[in-house]
Amino acid sequence: MARPILHIADRNYSSWSLRPWLALRHAGIEFDEAMHPLPEAVSPEGPAFRSISPTGRVPALDIDGVVIADSLAICEWAAELNPGLWPEARLERALARSAAAIMHSGFAALRSAAPVNIRRRSDSSRLPPAALADAAEMDALWRSWLQRSGGPFLFGDWSIADAMFAPAATRFVTYAIDCSEEASAYIARLMEEPHMKEWINLALKEGRSLERYETA
Ligand SMILES: N[C@@H](CCC(=O)N[C@@H](CS)C(=O)NCC(=O)O)C(=O)O
User: Fold this and answer.
1) Structure letter (DSSP) for residue 153
2) DSSP at 70
3) Which of 95, 77, 104 is nearest to 15 (CA)?
4) Any idea what DSSP says for residue 175?
5) Does the beta carbon of 21 lie inside 6 Å of ligand 1?
6) Which fold, 87-201?
7) Which atom of ligand 1 is nearest to the CA of 20?
8) Domain segments of the chain: what residues?
9) Which of 106, 167, 179, 195 lies deepest, with the highest CB count within 10 Å?
C-alpha cells in the first residue's frame, strides 16, 4: 500500500478535516496531506471538491487510488488498523460509536451559527438560542460520558468520539460559550493533547481569512 493521502481544507476553518486527521495521527498511521483552500463563497453549483471526492467535500482519504469519503468512514478505517481508537469493552465501544454518530449528524444549529474558526476570539452574544441550546446539550452529554468513564477523555482513553467532538470544543473557546466546570476541564484536556496542539499551531499560521466565517 502506498502512503494514503488525506485531502483536507484550511485548518483554521475545516472542522470535518480535523477529525480524521486526529484519528490517523492517534492510530500512528503514516499518511500524506493534500490541502485544498475552501472556496471564498458557497457556489450554487454545489460543493467545490468534485475532482477529489464523489461528495465534492473534504476530508477524503485516497488509498491506492480508492477514495474513502466522509470523516467518520475515514476514522473507522483508521480504527481497523488500530482498534485502540475505540474502547475495548463492547458496550463502551457501542456507546462511543453512538457519541461519534450523535456529533456527526447532530447539533445543526450550533454548527451553522458558530462556524469553527480556531484563530478567532468572539463572544456568544450573537448566537441564537437554538445554537446555545445545542451547546448546553453537548455539555450535558459530555458530563454523562465523563462521569461514566471516569475520564480523562469521554470514554477513558482518547477515542474517535473525542476526535468527533474536538472541533465542537474549539467553538466553546472561539465564542466563549458558557459551560460546566467538567466540560471546561474536558475542553482544556482536548486542546492540550499534542496532536490537537499541532493542528492548532498550524491553523494559527494560516494566513487566509474567509469573510463568511468571520461574522458570527
Ligand atoms: N459529512 C461530511 C462533511 C464534509 C464537509 O462538509 N466538508 C466541507 C469542509 S469542512 C467541504 O468540503 N466543503 C466544500 C464546499 O462546500 O464547497 C464529513 O463528515 O466528512
Assistant:
1) B
2) S
3) 104
4) T
5) no
6) Glutathione S-transferase Yfyf (Class Pi); Chain A, domain 2 (1.20.1050)
7) 20
8) 5-82, 87-201
9) 167
